């Protein structure tokens, strides 16, 4: 049984609807036009410039978080020597002894299309054994979401543990977005959130 299946078995807390923050505007033709919000764009453009590759700015985020990298919901921005990056957003509410959380991670691996490996440590007969596993595993359905064809993964490592994660490739690079399955969003709502985020992605190219 996968970790996500276990979460489903114990039941997830449902909320009415899936609200969120977006930046849908109206084009000259009257149709919705997706844009990278002005308040978020500078941070995402700097990321694209820092890694020298396309990054995907979300135009919508599930309530209550936004995607301002240096905003109040920032949970970290890391860029490695190989130009891979992780941008994380977090809202946590533990009022009245009830824990609720909205946690999303955005990753990119410029110049790499293979799934990276994550280090593991376990105890076997009293001895510590080190090994490695794919960082993203338990492959699920592949879907066409707007201009992106993404595949779901439900057993993930590190900061993506207990998350549903969608993975796709573009221009010789690997990208992922994931969300933690936890109250106030159910598993089904997390999937809808991620698919809406992907449909609304705005690719940003380096400008320097």
Q: Can you describe this structure?
A:
There is one protein chain. The protein has 208 residues and is of the alpha+beta class. The protein has one domain (21-111, 146-204). The chain is built from three helices and 15 strands. Strands 6-7-8-14-13-12-11 form a seven-stranded antiparallel β-sheet, covered by helices on one side. Strand 2 and strand 3 (32-34) form a beta hairpin. The longest helix has 14 residues, at 38-51. The protein is globular and about 55 Å long. It starts with a helix and ends with a strand. 31% of the residues are buried.
Secondary-structure blueprint:
Elements: H1 3-10, E1 20-22, E2 24-26, E3 32-34, H2 38-51, E4 55-57, E5 60-62, E6 74-79, E7 85-93, E8 100-109, E9 117-124, E10 127-134, E11 136-145, E12 148-156, E13 163-170, E14 173-180, H3 187-199, E15 202-204
Antiparallel strand pairs: 1-5, 2-3, 4-15, 6-7, 7-8, 8-14, 9-10, 11-12, 12-13, 13-14
Annotation keywords:
single chain, alpha+beta, 3 helices, 45% strand, globular
Total of DSSP H or I helical runs spanning 4+ residues: 3
Give a short account of the largest sheet: 7 strands, antiparallel
Proportion in helices = 10-25%
Order of helices and strands: HEEEHEEEEEEEEEEEHE
Q: Find the count of extended strands (DSSP E, 2+ residues).
A: 15
| Mean pLDDT score | 87
Question: Alpha-carbon distance between the termini?
Answer: 47 Å
Class per helix and strand makeup: alpha+beta
**Rg on CA atoms, Å:** 18 Å
Basic shape: globular
**Low-confidence parts:** 1-18, 24-32
């Amino acid at each position: 049984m996968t970790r996500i299946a276990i979460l489903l078995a114990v039941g997830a807390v449902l909320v009415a609807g899936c609200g969120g923050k977006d930046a849908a505007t109206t084009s000259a033709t009257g149709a919705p036009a997706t844009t990278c919000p002005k308040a978020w764009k500078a941070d995402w453009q700097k990321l694209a410039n820092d890694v020298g590759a396309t990054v995907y700015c979300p135009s919508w985020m599930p309530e209550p978080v936004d995607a301002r990298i240096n905003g109040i919901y920032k949970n970290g921005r890391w860029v490695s020597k190989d130009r891979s990056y992780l941008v994380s957003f977090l809202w946590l509410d533990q009022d009245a002894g009830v824990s609720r959380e909205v946690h999303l991670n955005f990753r990119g691996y410029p110049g790499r299309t293979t799934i990276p490996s994550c280090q593991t440590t376990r105890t076997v007969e009293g001895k510590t054994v080190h090994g490695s596993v794919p960082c993203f595993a338990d492959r699920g359905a592949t879907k066409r979401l707007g201009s992106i064809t993404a595949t779901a993964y439900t057993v993930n490592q590190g900061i993506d543990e207990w998350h549903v994660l969608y993975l796709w490739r573009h221009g010789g690079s690997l990208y992922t977005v994931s969300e933690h399955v936890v109250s106030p969003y159910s598993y089904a709502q997390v999937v809808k959130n991620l698919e809406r985020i992907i449909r609304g992605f705005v690719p940003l190219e380096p400008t320097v």
